[in-house]
């Protein structure tokens, strides 16, 4: 299952976009979003989803 970004909590810092090994995160209408078709929860790249690890606001990048 893909991850999603809780828009109301996102500070639009951009850290997650550069950490995503699948290029699944992009800026849309001034908010970062995760493309569920590209998101693999970082399987085969890392032990944990990197968007959730790098995000400065806990609970912003969560399973969809």
From TrEMBL:
Keywords: 4Fe-4S, Electron transport, Iron, Iron-sulfur, Metal-binding, Transport
Protein name as catalogued: 4Fe-4S binding protein
The protein's required cofactors: [4Fe-4S] cluster
Residue ranges crossing the lipid bilayer per the database entry: none
Segments forming domain 4Fe-4S ferredoxin-type: 1-30
The organism of origin for this protein: Bradyrhizobium australiense
Gene3D superfamilies per the UniProt record, alphabetical: 3.30.70.20
UniProt GO molecular function: 4 iron, 4 sulfur cluster binding; metal ion binding
């Amino acid at each position: 299952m893909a991850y999603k970004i809780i828009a109301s909590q996102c500070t639009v810092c951009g850290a997650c976009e550069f950490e995503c090994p699948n290029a699944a995160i992009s800026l849309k209408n001034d908010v970062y979003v995760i493309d569920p078709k590209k998101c693999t929860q970082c399987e085969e790249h890392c032990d944990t989803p990197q968007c959730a690890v790098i995000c400065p606001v806990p609970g912003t990048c969560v399973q969809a």
